[in-house]
Design brief:
By secondary structure, the chain is an all-beta fold. It is built from no helices and 15 strands. Helix content is 0%, strand content 44%.
Length: 239
């Protein structure tokens, strides 16, 4: 995949260098790096049981339809319904490329191999907002709006970057700093994650919704992340 490609439905599985593992959300005439939404699908009937992740119910798949504040989702294990409200935090990933990465940016690194504090080959690099000019660690695996990966991820500040490598510093709340050498290649996904309004939630996009499944089987979403469609597919979380 070319470096400029980020229209992957976020992101991620482990590359070692292996490509992202994805489940089909539908077929689309989407080239690598393209961001065209998936084609229309029939309305979903709630049947997917949300998975409990860190105490929160989670629904993953593609958006089959949207009516008001109700989303019907087609996922790898069936269909599900998601309800959102004005208080739901909605984030979307959009394409980026290596040349968009500059020193001082806050990024989340999803490793394909390696670990923070040593050398890492990046499966994904996701640009995010900093706090007070610094990119604080989250205290746990940082998914950056991407499907879960067993290797997790870590947030840090870009110190320098060239055409193959970037140096990233991660900062702890105790003032500590850890340096990591991050290598990237043609398989690395680059994306920008930012907050969007409810009108960005439309049919054909990928979705990762987290919240509480009510007694009627509808997920009441506290957070919605919309990763990237990659080659016409939405990604599946890894174990």
């Amino acid at each position: 995949m070319p470096k400029a490609a980020i229209t992957r439905c976020t992101i991620l599985a482990v590359v070692g260098v292996t490509t992202l593992s994805a489940v089909a959300c539908g077929s689309a005439d989407t080239k690598a790096g393209g961001s065209s939404p998936l084609p229309s699908t029939t309305s979903a009937v709630a049947s997917q049981t949300p998975e409990k992740i860190n105490g929160e119910d989670e629904v993953v798949g593609s958006i089959a339809s949207v009516s008001g504040n109700r989303i019907e989702v087609s996922g790898p294990s069936g269909a599900a319904s998601v309800q959102f409200s004005p208080s739901t935090k909605i984030m979307e990933l959009t394409p980026a490329k290596p040349t968009d990465i500059t020193p001082g940016l806050c990024v989340t690194i999803r490793p394909a191999s390696g670990a923070e504090g040593a050398a890492v080959t990046a499966d994904a690099v996701v640009v995010g907002a900093s706090s007070g000019g610094q990119c604080q660690k989250t205290g746990g695996a940082d998914n950056a709006g991407l499907p879960r990966s067993p290797l997790g991820g870590f947030r840090g500040t870009v110190d320098s970057i060239d055409d193959k490598t970037m140096l990233v510093s991660t900062h702890g709340t105790d003032g500590s700093s850890t340096n990591t050498t991050v290598e990237y290649n043609d398989l690395t996904l680059f994306a920008d994650r930012h907050r969007v309004n409810a009108d960005a939630v439309v049919e054909g996009k990928c979705i990762i919704a987290g919240g509480t499944n009510d007694t009627g089987g509808v997920l009441q979403a506290q957070t919605i992340n919309m990763p990237l469609v990659v080659n016409g597919s939405c990604p599946q979380p890894k174990g």
